[in-house]
Amino acid sequence: MPKITREHWSGKLGFVLAAAGSAIGLGNIWKFPYITGMNGGGAFVLVYLGCILLFGLPLMLCEITIGRKTLKNPYGAFKALQLKRSRTADLIGLFLMFGAVFLSGSGHYGFAALLFGAALLFVWLGFAAVGLLSLITAMLILSYYAVVGAWIVDYVYRAFTGGLHFTQVAEAAQVFGNYLDREPGRIAIELIIFMTLTAGMIIFGIRKGIERCSKILMPLLFILLIAVIIRGVTLPGAGAGIGFFLYPDFSKLSVGGVLEALGHAFYSLSLGMGITITYGSYLSKNENIFSTSLWIVALDTLAALLGGLAIFPAVFAMQLSPDAGPGLIFNVLPATFYRIPGQLGWLWAGAFFLMMTIAALTSAAALLESGVTFIMDQFKVRRVPAVIGTYIGITLLGFLTCYSTNHWRNLPGIDNFVQNVFNVRTGSWFDLLDKLTSNWILPLTGLFTVIFAGWIWGARKAGRELRRGSQGICDENIVELISGFHKDPHYMNSPSSGLTVITLWGILIRYVAPVIILFIFLQVIAK
Ligand code: TRP
User: Fold this and answer.
1) What is the CATH number of domain 12-86+126-526?
2) CA of 363 to the centre of ligand 1 (A)
3) Which mutation among 141, 210, 438 tests ligand 1's pocket best, with the greatest number of atoms within 8 A of CB?
4) Which of 173, 266, 474, 509 is 20 to 30 A from 487 via CA?
């Protein structure tokens, strides 16, 4: 058996762009702008920034550190770091079993069975269950994320071939609805195209594949985004859109909005799914984890803000009103772009959907890569067969979504099964996957990851890995920094064991983040 040596990113830029590529996705462009507009604009942005810095960044540091310490996929990484069978894992198993009983009491047998399975995994594997759970989640997410990618590919094609000439939102909505409902075969072909592009990005490996593609695609994404923004904000009447997006209206900010900001912070940074552990496992030992994470977070937030500026000014200037989720992108925007005077609507729509394609592709590549890394590590398979196998598996799973995006009725047998077993009366396979993964599994795996880093592996040991390459920032004394005594020779001589950046991180991951994440989770359950 030939020895498979582990690759590394070529340097900081490659890693930052690839990780930013995973983070910047559909969430930034179609979800963030809209929830911002609904929750008090600028006021929500401030809360969101707070969430990113207090919870998103610390969790990202944990994940990259876990990956780089072990040089393994999420499952292998958790397994390697848990020294002995942990009682805490058994307790979590017990807690999940209670959840399963509770759910079966309310008729959600399917969810109860899933939760019960997760509980058994914990009792059996300890914290390695977290790694396994996040990998499964990543694959499920990819199977529907790629279908959205397929729709976007379709809209790029339509834009450039003159197929998006709608002046009314209703017209666009009808076309989109028919497409989802009646053309599953077409979507399936586009899914294959999208998945092939995704697999093509990673088949050549970390450096020659993901990294090289990200270095071209990420700058292109920002250029396209800025071009669309310039067109939008220079239209007469664009100010109203900027107002909707950014005017800080604290009266519209509710507790629900704050929790939404928290949940979205994790989703947007691609945390809780083992992706960042996987990417971190290819990071070299002398890289500064702290400053790279700051860069990733900054680029992700920038993309979210630019996304809003690319959408709302144009929508308001064309006298349309914004919509939520898919409707905003596939119905409102085509009508908006087509209405822009000057006959160049196709160009703006094309640029926008191309930009979305890039955002979706780089995220999909990250998801696929986590499955591929797992297979390569655990079964000692080479990259090419691992990529091909995962690619085929996910594409097949994706077909299920293609045939049931609008309604279960396209899958008659499964329809009854799901209705009875999961007790889900509305929605589709697509909705089920989306809800299950982003509302349930994500906060849970995030919670277990911080608990693991803070208590099981332990903040002290995790901190030792984190400090390699970033000692300067980690040992910065926050009290001196904030109070203006930074670099004061008097304080420099005193033993500085006060609140430093790394001890603050320890406090956040041990106490603050677990409590807050549990809180989001309870909120989701209560809904
Ligand atoms: N962060 C992505 C977005 O904003 C979505 C996402 C969540 C994701 N988890 C992920 C992407 C894991 C890739 C990998 O749209």
Assistant:
1) 1.20.1740.10
2) 6
3) 141
4) 509
